[in-house]
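[audit] Reproducing an earlier prediction to check determinism. Same input, same settings, fresh worker. If the tokens differ from the archived copy the diff job will pick it up downstream; this log only records the rerun itself.
[audit] input (712 residues):
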Amino acid sequence: MPNRNTTALVCAGLVASLLIASAAQGQNVSFIAPLHFDAGRNPASIATADFNGDGIQDLAVANDNTNSMSVLIGNGGGTFQAPRSVRVGTNPQSVVVGDFNGDGVPDLAVANSGQSLQGQGVSVLLGNGDGSFRAGEDLVALDAPVFVAVGDFNGDGVQDLVVANYNPGEISVFLGNGDGTFRPARNFAAGYHPSCIAVGDFNRDGAQDLAVITSYSPTVEVLWGNGDGTFQIPRTLHVGVLLSSVITGDFNGDGMLDLAVTGYQGGIAVLLGNGDGSFRPQHQIIETGLFPSSMAIGDFNGDGVPDLVVGNHGSSTISVFFGSGDGSFFTARTVGTGSGPTGIAVGDFAGDGRQHLAVASSSGSVSVLLNRGTGSFRDARYRRIGNNPRSVGVGDFNGDGRLDLAVSVWGEMVMLLGNGDGTFQLGSRFAQGDPRSFAVADLDGDGRLDLAVAAHSLGSVAVFLGNGDGTFRAGGTFRAGSDPSYVAVGDLNGDGVLDLAVTNQFSNDVSVLLGNGDGTFQRTQNFRVGYSPQSVAIGDLNGDGKPDLVVAYRDSHYVSMLLGIGDGTFKRPQTLNAGPISAFAALGDFNGDGFLDVAVAKQNPAGVSVLLGRGDGTFQAARDYPLMSPATSITVGDFDGDGTLDLAVANSDRAVSMLLGNGDGTFQLGGNFGAWNASVAMGDFNGDGLPDLAVANYPSINVAVLINDTRR
């Protein structure tokens, strides 16, 4: 008699010969460490639905070598109550959810392989709607049913069942009557030792077909449905290795169902459907762990493309693979689970709108892995450019549709031209005293990006006009204050022309240079602020439609707000308490109320302070987020694709810290990513629609690029 632990590491489960190619680097959606819940003896299969109607997903687990299954009622938040035992046949191998009596309440069907021909068959359990079940009909199948699936095989709108019978090499089809009962089985040949079934309309004739895996065979048997509950003789699809499980989905978005199959010893092959019931040779071979025994489909990174998760029985792990949308997959992550995973269910167990995992393990537990969905970045790529890069800016400087980088280094500006894949080639470079900060904008209105550079040692702002090919010409030098340290761009007087605001560390003021629209600027106006201003941000803080300024300082415990009059002049500075040594300020609407808020990078104590704006120029008390080392700059963006603003913080510990916004003005730490500490800028450097980061690494000789791995 077959045992799930031997024969049917089947359905769920490409042999060593498939482990010849590994997937490309994938996208890092991360999962919280598994939470373990008792589920009974030898869990073999798992399914999920809301069994008690409370809006929270619950679990049903078939327990091999027993005559029972377990129901775990979800509490929300990813936890579950103690298991409730439900009696079924002997050696339950597979459980599936359906609504067999049409009452809108989830029911269960359980395939029981039996013991010495005793207790085998299919147990139907009708849901009561409160998490309990009543015994329905016991269906008589052939010898050793090991897998059950749901479909509508005769097109009457009523759910039917199909069962893989291990020993006679046939499948049994039970047509539903719609009241929880079923007609007697009709049996169809399906190869030697069928062990797993996928249901779908592979030839697009409106009738559901079957793809059947037979244990320790290198083939998939495809049975086309006739639409009346009967099936044609199998069409054999050769894969070339011993297969153990199959699942179906549209992996390349062409509207035709495809197959993914796993091998007994490891690996996944993807077979793309032609829409006529035939399939192309394996499209991609992906490495898994040892002896994969279960497989499921989900969208774990929220990009609308099917992903795969595989339970590796031999290595006690699961592997998550992200779909690219063209039928290929990228390795995401391998996560440890309980001993010997045997089944996987996908559901929103935490009620947060994300798809999480519940993994049944032969150790007698269910492991729940909650999807954090956090923004993640690959290891930094370093590009050598020159001594002591201080600031980095992003733009398409040569008009090829790819983002480039401009970097200020000791004595010059350096251009790095983007290749569109996250890598860069060295472009032009030109001398410019001791450039610190600079701004990127079209200052002369010709549609090409220009640079405004704070020339530290010259006490001025140098303008370089872009030629549109990645090179620049001198556009003039304009007086600022003493030791200009930071430059920002905005329309400060409402004439539709871009102006400049510059902080001057030694003269303790902000210089405002009103633009003429041709790349030149009017005579400088200086506005007194506090001691040693370090950075300036521009935004409308009091809702009057006029741009205001926020100034952060090198050695102060506050930031200053200068309310704009609308003609390029500003009122006297007002103090906003942000905590000691507040070095950099950035603006954004962090709580979604339509008002600008302020985020301040702090050096002592290290961290970020967030001040939520009331829209009238006043702010709530600062909320602090400690970091391990002094923060030097902040870039605002939605790095994890959840629609709320996050903060990328450069700090002095050779890392960029990610603070992920919760949407209510609070933040949580999303990780630290290797880079250094001077300046950080944001752009989509590899064209995948995700914001990446470029970091000027001071003191060093390079720029770091961090490619965002979170898929939306």
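[audit] rerun output stored. Observation attached for the diff report: The first strand starts at residue 35 and ends at 38.
[audit] end
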